[in-house]
Amino acid sequence: MEAVQKIFTASGKALDIEEIRRGFPMLQTKHKGNPLVYLDSAATGQKPGIIIQKLKNFYSKEYAKPKEEHVLSQKVTKQLEEARKKAAEFIHASSSKEIIFTRGCTESINVVATGFARGFLKQGDEILITAMEHHANIIPWQMACETTGAKLVVAPITKTGELDMMAFETLITKKTRLVSVVHSSHVLGTILPIREITSIAHRSDIPVLVDGAQAAPHMPVDMQELDCDFYTFSGHKMGTPSGVGILYGKKNWLDKLSPGEGGGDMAKKVTFEKTEYADLPEKFEAGTSPFAEIICFGALIDYLNELNMEKTSEYEKDLMHYAEEKLSMIDGLTMFGSAPEKEPVISFSIDGIKMKKLEKELSDEYNIMIRTGDLTAQPLLEVLGVKELARISFCYYNTKGEIDYFVSALKNFLKK
After folding, report:
1. Where among 249, 282, 306 does a domain terminate?
2. Which of 146, 224, 291, 361 lies 20 to 30 A from 125 at CA?
3. By CB neighbour count within 10 A (0-12 exposed, 13-18 middle, 19+ buried), where does 30 fall?
């Protein structure tokens, strides 16, 4: 593979991709003499060595349960709340009290869906989503509808894989109680116009939840600019250990929602007759949190800020466009999603090829990791008229040399 390249910004400073790659232990591994080429960051991101070391040091030298009085606990509590503050600053929340730690994006969506089912939905109400949602932004709303008699409404997409904004606006009615949309599609890469969506919904006083699982790892996100009422994302896609996510919510909505889980520190006062819930954010954080992972998330934010996400976003999109150009030259290959604004994801099919066979051979013979199958988006694939797709997804630790290697391996596979 060719040497990794650097990308220069307007300031003249460059990301040193080679140095970045040296900081990821997994990228130094080999199989049959081939270095790992990891093109599945949309599923989960590789971990910087500094985060792995942070977790090791925490368990070796700092470990204790937070929110107790002894000195070890107080130090952990301080780190935990520092991580919450960093998360608030990272997404430009108004207050750290609007940051709820969860186990991931899926749980975050379920927290909101459960809260709405308990307090805001009734027979005949409607929840509006889009045709490009991940299962995690479909199933919780179906469950809420089943228990309340509400209805799930789906806004269509265009031939280029964009949200049909005209249809979307007409589907907002007096029955709509919430809009829940993806920020960027994990299949098509499409970046939705969230500010326009929130403006349309808010004209009718309808709250908006945004699934940011794919966007938050790849672009700066600003809650003041987007003006959504809820925003969710997972740490593991960004480089943290698994098991930690963020639910951002505007305070007025978090105050009104009832928690879906009870226990532990989410209670202020408990009697056998009644429980008084704790204030935000503890109200939604029942039980012992994944505090080691949360503390690592705070360290990851420092790392991403040092890299500068505007630079990494520009670099990742450059990789995507390079790969699109290379793939467009392969006969029988069809790429899905051609929106002008995309995240670094490419999904494709190849005439007559079983995608799982492709995934296995690339892995076994070339040490290249991609994702194939229904991509946890069965309804979207039905809309697209396909049963399975292959997906490659990029992060700032990938290179054009890796893309060339992947394309070469793909061509070798197709010759068989």
Report:
1. 306
2. 224
3. exposed
The tokens describing 156, both together, are 């269509």
- Domain span holding position 22: 7-35+308-415
Token pair listed for 51: 């985060």
- Let me know whether 296 and 325 are in one domain: no
Query: Which two tokens mark 301?
Result: 């934010």
> What gap in Å lies between CA 342 and CA 345, rounded to an integer?
8
Does a structural domain hold residue 151? yes
Residue 181 backbone phi and psi in degrees, to 5: -135, 155
**The one-letter amino acid at 27:** L
Same domain, 94 and 138: yes
Q: What is the distance, to the nearest Å, from the Cα of residue 148 to the centroid of all Cα atoms in its chain?
A: 28
Give me the torsion for CA of 65, 70, 76, 79, rounded to 10°.
Answer: 150
- Residues 183, 186, 192: CA angle, nearest 5 degrees: 25
- Provide the token pair at 84: 């919450």
pTM: 0.95
With a cut of 80, say whether residue 13 has pLDDT above it: no
Tokens standing for residue 291:
């505090």
Partner residues linked to 184 by β-bridges: 191
Between CA 168 and CA 275 the distance in angstroms is 41
- DSSP β-ladder status, 245-249 and 230-234: antiparallel
Please indicate, yes or no, if residue 45 is contained in any of the structural domains. Answer: no
Instruction: DSSP letter for 394, please.
Output: -
Q: Please write the tens of the pLDDT for every residue from 356-410.
A: 999 999 999 999 999 999 999 999 999 999 999 999 999 999 999 999 999 999 9
Which class for 312: exposed (0-12), middle (13-18), buried (19 or more C-beta within 10 A)?
buried
Residue 46 within any structural domain of the chain: no
Domain count, the chain: 2
Please determine, for residue 138, whether its predicted confidence score (pLDDT) is greater than 90: yes
One domain, residues 341 and 231: no
In angstroms, what CA-CA distances link 379 with 137, 173, 197, 200, 382? 12, 23, 22, 25, 5
Residue 327's contacts (CB-CB under 8 Å, 6 or more residues apart) are 333, 335, 346, 348, 407
Place of tokens 């995507």: 320
Say yes or no: 328 and 271 in one domain: no
Residues 215 and 319 in one domain: no
**Average pLDDT rounded to a whole number, residues 191-220:** 98
Q: 93 and 225, same structural domain?
A: yes
Find tokens 């960093």 and name the residue.
86
